């Protein structure tokens, strides 16, 4: 029998209904379920702490929601190499594999081994304090973002790539994204769209107050160091989750993470097809 984790979008009624059906079906088949506290409370089930032990012994993680739910699932289990199956109850669904009606069949195929695994590069961020000591660190599937503590204020950042100073930015923020994250925040900041299975670090300024406003697509082996060079504090967020506050003299070092995200797929993922559908590009113009 298998142990299966479950993440459920709290504001999607259909996701809750599907989760209830999955729990009943899996439990009757003798499988074990594991849910974080908020998700367990939503379904009236026992909870497991949302901590470093959550992924221990998990065979599969199922996310019922949108891309945000998938990001949460990946954050919980990627360290233990647990595969994630995304069921789309969101608007975009870049990271999901199946639609709601196919959830039970998809889980059944996973349990039978009738699937493949697609690995995605993640971004690692390490805080270096002004005195040289190491601070907080973490991993993001989409992006690490450095920005001002107060929304709408610019921040001054010096960027060094592979030990060589590149330039200083005055901007609303700076994004270091993975290829998967190229269709997230980086895209809204006019960054390039990169195939998600490619490996690269994508550096994109947010509303830069300078002539140079282009993104950089760097080798996956690159190290991007971002230094706070003004007297304004900043904050680092990983996939929207706050990691740490930064003070003048602090820095963030971004690299490719040693940990990949592992996704369940049932055949080649049609990235261009998904892109065309989401942006309405499949219509032939007159």
List the helices and strands and how they pair.
Elements: E1 3-8, H1 13-28, E2 32-34, H2 37-43, E3 60-65, H3 67-77, E4 84-88, H4 103-111, E5 116-120, E6 123-128, E7 134-140, E8 143-148, E9 155-161, E10 164-171, E11 173-177, H5 185-188, E12 201-206, E13 216-218, E14 224-228, E15 234-238, E16 241-246, E17 251-256, E18 261-265, H6 271-279
Parallel strand pairs: 1-2, 1-3, 3-4
Antiparallel strand pairs: 5-18, 6-7, 6-17, 8-11, 8-15, 9-10, 9-14, 11-12, 12-13, 14-17, 15-16
Describe the overall structure.
The protein is α+β, with helices and mostly antiparallel strands and 286 residues long. It has two domains: 3-120 and 261-279, Rossmann fold; 123-256, Probable inorganic polyphosphate/atp-NAD kinase, domain 2 (Tumour Suppressor Smad4, Sandwich). Helix content is 20%, strand content 35%. It is built from six helices and 18 strands. The protein has a six-stranded antiparallel sheet with strand order 7-6-17-14-9-10, with no helix packed on it. Strands 13-12-11-8-15-16 form a six-stranded antiparallel sheet, with no helix packed on it. Helix 1 links the parallel strand 1 and strand 2. The chain starts with a strand and ends in a 7-residue tail after the last helix. The mean pLDDT is 93.
